[in-house]
Give the backbone structure.
Amino acid sequence: MKKIYYILSSALCAGLLFNSCTKEVEVDYSNEDAYANVTSLVGTLRDGKTNKVSNPIEIRKSDYNTSVAFNVSRAPKEGIDVTVAYDAEYLAAYNKEHGTSFALYPSDRVAIQNQGKILVAPDEKVSYSLDLTIAKGDTTTLENGTTYVIPLKASVKAKDVSMSSEDSHCVYLVKNLAGESDTFKGDGAVKTFLFYEANDTNPLNTLNLKLTSGELFLDYIVLFAANINYDAQKGEVYVYFNPNIQHLLDNNDVYLQPLRKRGVKVIMGILGNHDESGLAQLSKIGAQQFAKKLADMCYSYNLDGVNFDDEYSNAPDLSNPLFSYDGHPGARLMYETKRAMPDKEVTVYLYGNMYGVGVIDGIPASEWIDIAVPDYGGSAYPVGGMTLKDCAGAAVQLDYSAGSNRKSEAQNVKSKGYGYFMMFAPFAGSIYDSKIKQQVYTMSTISEGLYGVGLQDMTEFYEKGSATPRKLR
């Protein structure tokens, strides 16, 4: 406890005019961590484009260009010398922390402006950036689809600058996808995000949706959905695959990898399944356990990430250590999932209790949520350092909207700066279903609004469970 003495005016102290009185007040400052940054000088290293510590990127047909930023909590009184350099020794610590086994990206393909040297001038800026180029080089020397790590570290010559190991590092997670860029529609283009109902549809139809300029229309597809369930005998939460999801996974090379090889991200939807193991009611231990199983799923089946949809779960037994409503459990699960698979994408459907929390364990949501998508008819909103570029600005249910013109809605999403346009429930019919062409028309108007060109006519159609297309009637 600390004592504070202050003087009150006579009007407030016993009503005595033109006198003063002194009052002693005890205030509890037992936790002074929140005030530490007021006087200390804290440095951080972040990606200049995203302001993230951990940054998944893809090497396709050209080099990758970004910037790396060194930030200080306030302008220093004296100049500070900073050097940003490739830190190969950090790989072991990073892999141990995340339970991964990533390899190093070749250091000779990493170029930092001014040899990584920064002079932080006294009483001036609090953020300094350097251009960073990650060269494609000879991609045949890299395993396709494998994640490689570029660990950068900021070293500071100043005794009064505080930097934790995490704050002093910025990590780039690089995947070699050279030549696989059929979805690329230009830098900064809005990306499309579509949910396939696996019980009704075939994701191979993604290959039949092409812009008139040749690119694939869909950037992300979600397989809807696998489930979270609880095994009472084993005392663990696990991922359940219904027969239709299991069929896609068992025939992964037929239904899913052809999409990924063309640049489409394949995401597994995760949904409640009428028991007590809800996505937003796991304890920290339960979240860590389930996040590990999700990471095992994504790595085993070579998927690009998960989408969380908090629906259809029952109330849990809170005496079970795996379950809890305390501490924002939905956000905790996303945080632990990103830690378990930092090179994969964590996406969330804004429904139930998964979304809205900006910080977990001091880490902002921008570090553990990659994309937020809204419910039907709405728009997602950013939290915890995210921006509109991380959000979908619209959600269109295609089976309800077949034949409608959505061009102006797509133009609105683009003009407002959203990063994604979301769609649900396409192609639940057969080659004889007239609604299929009507849905393609609706998607074509969305394409016109986003990219200025429509879609090619769909002439072939993959019916559910078939790897052979048939002529669309």
Remarks:
- The chain has ten helices and 26 strands.
- The first strand starts at residue 2 and ends at 9.
- The chain has three domains: 2-30, 37-176, 191-471.
- Residues 284-301 form the longest helix (18 residues).
